[in-house]
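Good morning,

Both structures are done.
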Amino acid sequence: MTWLVTGGAGYIGAHVVRAFLAEGMDVAVVDDLSTGHRRFVPERVPFLEADVNDVEALAAFMAEQSVAGVVHVAGFKYAGVSVSEPLRTYRTNVAGTAAVLQAMEVAGVEAIVFSSSAAVYGTPDVDTVTEDTPTAPESPYGESKLIGEWLLADQGRARGIRHTSLRYFNVVGSGAPELPDTSPHNLFPLVFTALAEGRVPRINGDDYPTEDGTCVRDYVHVADLAAAHVTAARRLAAGRRLRPVYNLGSGTGTSVRKIVEAIVAQTGADVLPEVHPRRPGDPARIVADGSAAAADLGWAMRHSLAQMVSSAWAAHSAAPG
């Protein structure tokens, strides 16, 4: 039984691939390498370089590899950039998801795990979000992920596919030194790069009603996230009924100050973060209740904050220049 990981040459997708292999499960990868890296995919893993909108190529590859299910990670994942590039976002995330579902139908593949996002919640009016918290995305990216969830649900009703969507919060760390986060928009690589260039990291606002005055966010280790995908795939393959969506969050959260200070300490830099004014619209606290995922998918935070930072720094330091 082979599972296809779309976007399997990217930061998160590559960790999902490793998680499947660690469980002795066959896996294949499709990626257009627009942001992924061919070196992230182990040589023994069948690989197709293709756009997920290419239904014919995807369906043929699924049939060739005897694919039983798909983990759909491929996507345009930059919420801020999506505001200025909405059409690119919708083409990749909405049309691309529809194309993956169409290819599955052609190839007779009946199970899918979808990479969704906390961005579907927008700025919630509660401190801790559950799967029942109203969705109110505030960017084309968040909207595109919510539409992706709808597409899975609609195809489930129409064609009987088994599916679930995993809503990510802030994914950090590394499960292997050769798998760094290379995104130009994510917090950890941004701070690492700033420190390497002699710039001081910044904190936006220190007067929030939180323990240290800075915003509290939910950070999860990428290896823990990847393991949840494998469990979801196993459950779907076994015919088990899963909820349509799950939050993958810590339930507690970490302040921005603690995150930045932990990164600075790990790198050995002799600087203090600069405090800047609040950014408009930043809520004081967004944390996810992951109890549903814990019950159904064995979800757990197995890595501490220190491990998140040290593993990310080790991978960043080992990355090719």
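Second structure follows.
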Amino acid sequence: MAWLVTGGAGYIGAHVVRALQKADLAPVVIDDLSSGIAAFVPEGVPFVRANLLDRAAVGAALDEHDVAGVIHIAGFKYAGVSVTRPLHTYAQNVSAMVVLLEELAARGIDKVVFSSSAATYGTPDVDLVTEDTGLHPESPYGETKLIGEWLLRDAEVAHGLRHTSLRYFNVVGSGSTDLFDASPHNLFPLVFDMLYRGATPRINGEDYPTPDGTCVRDYIHVADLALAHVAAARRLAAGEPLERVYNLGSGDGHSVRQIMDTIREVTGIDFTPEVHERRPGDPARIVASGELAARDLDWRMRHDLREMVASAWAARQQAGDTYPR
């Protein structure tokens, strides 16, 4: 029996696939490579190149590989871009998920781990986000992730689906030097790329009510995140109870200034970030509690900030000039 990983050729998905392999849970990947990288799929892991909107391909993958459950990571993940491409975002994140859930229901496949997002919270007005914090998504991306959670809830009522959703903020680091984050919108790859080009990274605002004046965010290591997905899959497979939603948070967070200082220390590249004005809408602090996930999913921060930066930098260096732009 296999676990289908949608988006398994992406940065997060590829780490989940390798964690499943180590746990002997037989991963199968489906990915259209719109942002994924085929080389991220390990040799010997079945790979279906298809979009989830392709119903026939989804059904064939489920049948051919005797799928027992799904870890659903695929989606259009760029919150900012989703504002200008809302219909595309809804098609990839909602319509595609409907197809997936319909094909699962038709086959009696009743286990789903959903890669949701802390974007469902919008800009929370609390110091520490918990699963009970109000949901106020502020982008089509955040809205579609929340709708995805609703779809799972409704499929539970209608078809007996067993599921859980994992919400998280900023995923960084690398669990292997051949897996890197190539997102054009995430802080680590943005800063690394600027350093590679000889440009100077920037900080947007240093007058926030935080210890060093820069924004504080929740950063978690991608390998820790992958282990939480596997733990959730194991519990579903064993018939053990799970909450509908878990935050995968650090409970602490790091400031942008701390990130820059650590990058300078790890890379050995001496730079002083340019300080620009605040960006409209950037909250001073967003940090989540991971207590519930620690209780049920063995969630914990196994990597400190230096390890997050060092592993990400090592992967970026190995990619070298082959890094996609």
